[in-house]
Specification:
Blueprint lengths: L13 E7 L2 E7 L2 E6 L2 E8 L3 H9 L1 E6 L6 H8 L14 E4 L2 E4 L4 E12 L3 E13 L8 H6 L23 E3 L31 E3 L2
Antiparallel strand pairs: 1-2, 1-5, 3-4, 4-9, 5-8, 6-7, 8-9, 10-11
């Protein structure tokens, strides 16, 4: 079985956000879909280990910021490979609140939902939300997971439902232990400057490990 074939399923790339008291929190998600037109309803899948999941459960509301293909990898890294529990992900990230939920100004579309139901799986909670507000914010092509994977060369965090462990094909390659990025540059990894950082999660060169 080749789990890489699952990448042919279509996914987007979103920041799902909520509030922790008066503090905005959020995480990257790629599993969100409209499941009903009337009333408009959205389902989103969040890992049990994500701090944002607990905040959505507590507030009963969440926002989805739809990222465009122009979204900076550093933005994806901040929301995808750090925890809101001990990091202010919204620091230096422009956002506004709509219906009390934080929305990234750089997104092309936002959706605000009231949680109406949820389903528990072994690793994820699937929230069903009734849409209470949604608008276009900026022009742009929504980023798909295929674009993120093939063009940006990004990887899924281990908490993502689309995470796939390194395969036999990566033996001998240098892989970021934080985000799974596989270095494939022309300069041998050993010859890279010591201030080299992972282009996806911005971790230092020391975070890379050679796959044996």
């Amino acid at each position: 079985m080749d789990l890489n074939a699952l990448r042919n399923l279509s996914y987007g790339l979103y920041v799902v956000s909520s509030m922790d008291g008066g503090r905005p929190v959020g995480c990257i998600a790629n599993s969100a879909m409209q499941i009903m037109a009337e009333p408009a309803s959205i389902a989103v899948s969040l890992n049990h280990d994500n701090f944002t999941t607990k905040c959505v459960e507590k507030t009963g509301k969440f926002a989805i910021s739809v990222l465009s293909e122009q979204a900076a990898p550093s933005l994806i890294a901040k929301f995808g490979f750090r925890s809101s529990k001990n990091t202010d992900k919204f620091q230096e990230v422009p956002y506004e609140k709509y219906d009390g939920m934080p929305v990234l100004k750089e997104c092309c579309t936002y959706v605000i939902c009231q949680v109406t139901d949820k389903m528990e799986t072994e690793t994820h909670t699937v929230f069903l939300g009734s849409v209470i507000d949604t608008q276009f914010l900026k022009e742009g092509t929504p980023m798909t997971y295929a674009y993120y994977h093939n063009v940006v060369k990004g990887k899924s965090p281990k908490t993502a439902p689309t995470y796939i462990p390194p395969s036999e094909k990566t033996k001998g390659a240098y892989i970021c232990t934080v985000c799974g990025y596989i270095y494939d540059g022309e300069v041998p990894f050993e010859n890279l400057p010591e201030d080299y950082v992972c282009p996806i999660c911005l971790k230092p060169k020391s975070a890379f490990k050679k796959e044996e």
